Amino acid sequence: GLNALGLLGAAGAVDARPILSNGDFYVRLPLCLLTLFYPTRKALLLAHVMNLAAFCAWTPFVWDHQYWGAATEATFVLLSMRSESDFVGAARAQTASLYLVAAFWKLTTSFLDYRTSCATVLVAEALVTLPKLLQAVASSAAETIFIAAPALTLVMEFAVGPLLVMSPRLGVLLGLSFHLVVATLPLNYACGFSVNCIVRYGLFMPHHVAAALREAVSLGTWTAVHAAAVGVAVIGCRHLHGGIDTHFVACVWLAVVYVRSMLMTLGRERQGGGDAGSVWQQAWDMIDSAWVFCSRHIIVVSKDAMLSQDQRRRLKEIEAEEKAALQQVKAGFSARRVAMGASAPTWLVAAVTGLTLLWGVAPAVLGLQNMSALTMYGNVKHWGGSNHLLVPTGLLHRADGAAGGLGSRLSLALGNDTLVRVESTDSRLLASLSPADSTDQLPPRARRLMRAAGASGRYFGAYYSRMYHGEGRGVWPIGGNNESPAPYALTAYELSRLLAMAREHGEPFSVRLTLLPFRASAPSSPAQWRDFDGRQVIFSEEPGANRRSCATVDGSPCNAAEQTLADAPAPPRWLRRLLMQYPVPLLPDSEGEIHCSA
């Protein structure tokens, strides 16, 4: 019944973790209800500790946004004996840092190339949700839009974090715009991520959000506004996603809460801290302030001629505010952070920021995380060299296993660093896990728009498929694909992990593959992996009968290296709980770049 009402995500936010286990029903759900109605410090602490324990138990089958959530919860638990303002200040810095890390990992050659970029896929999905008239206009400029999409996405993601700290209203507006667009996407409907981020915006203006929430239950005008917003969200969700989903409704309702909070802050600022004024006056103040901001920061030609006398006066006030803020930043505090309701010691903010940035960057650089790292939609090349403009990736693959030390011991755990090209498989499970070709699930119009603009129009859901299977929901639905099956490259480590999963699945399977003369530890390109002409071998297994064989396609026995790969045991359990590697689809037009896989 709850599922039918959309309370458990019936419409299918693709990155939602459904309520699945007894632990969810009998531990986490009661704690959620307890902290909703009796939010005492001890109850909140217990709930967050249990969430962190569940997160550790679920690993590696956790979404990247759950890592965001776990980071904030860990900060809450560690600072539970300190003041509330210490947690709020630290959590603000952490939230801003996480946005910066997500943007940082999009500085790759493959993301910046619109032909392979995930930005192109997401924008194409967004275009087909527009009204038909706007779709026609967008289609005429589709190539220009797609070419600009990677750069615009980067600018927006890099801007959200700093704006949340320096100018919370603008940061919240930009973040809401981004996440509400994500909530409309037909396939990459990652509304679990959107809700996870949007709820944290309350940290940046807590008093005003609290006032807006109290107003929402006061049975006044704004109660009706909130109710209407929920109704519109339900209708919109049914139209866009074919059902009701709590994630979508929550995103829209929270957007109304934050807009109301911003109207309150604007009204009080304009009236010296008194009444917020009428709703219409607040809305006008918001529009007027946005115009002044654009004139100040975006329009650089003849700006004085474009402003009224009153706006010139306010422009000077804003400039004076900025100077004062800079002076306070130099003294160790952000004026905006103090003004919006909480501050924390500089050393604490610096420590949390540094640890968050280190945690967000180091695992992917070392090669200890691919999926579940903060590299979402970044087209990152995690092994076989790096395509990032600033940092290497997969450094542990390069460690000498015979040299001793922690790095080399981890390198030994990764096994030999041979690269393999998988040509085909008759296993539905393996095909769904790698490369998880999900192109047919994109809206047909989105595919046509991308291909007409010169983009590949292909999309691979490797992360989604692994999560789907890992949560016990079966095999990711990839059937009906009209595309030619794509061969893909992966490391010997990931091949042994996938073969172990296929054996556990219990069905007979065969895999046709080619050992490549390239290493995960040395730079090489997807084009080289695709074009190498080597001998192909077939691994066949019947797990139930405990039979397996390895032979070339012409029936010759495998050589020692091939047999070793076929007989490789599953990687250590601790490493499998941490590391799931991305396969790299090898398409005819790849030109050395990584195609969008998420």
Helix and strand topology:
Elements: H1 22-37, H2 41-58, H3 64-78, H4 84-104, H5 109-112, H6 118-127, H7 132-140, H8 142-166, H9 168-182, H10 191-198, H11 206-216, H12 221-241, H13 246-270, H14 279-297, H15 309-330, H16 335-339, H17 346-366, H18 406-413, E1 418-425, H19 428-433, H20 444-452, H21 462-470, E2 488-491, H22 492-505, E3 509-519, H23 526-531, E4 536-542, E5 547-552, H24 560-566, H25 573-576, E6 584-585
Antiparallel strand pairs: 1-2, 1-3, 2-6, 3-4, 4-5
Regions with pLDDT < 50 over 5+ consecutive residues? 271-277, 298-303, 328-341
Q: What profile does the largest beta sheet have?
A: 6 strands, antiparallel
Mean pLDDT: 82
- The oligomeric state of the chains shown is single chain
**3D shape:** globular
End-to-end CA span: 31 Å
Please bin the fraction of helical residues.
40-55%
Instruction: Figure out the total of helices.
Output: 25
Task: Report the C-alpha radius of gyration, rounded.
Answer: 26 Å
Q: What spatial order of strands do you see in the largest sheet?
A: 5-4-3-1-2-6
User: Into which percentage range does the β-strand content fall?
Assistant: 5-15%
How many strand units?
A: 6
The class by helix and strand makeup works out as alpha+beta
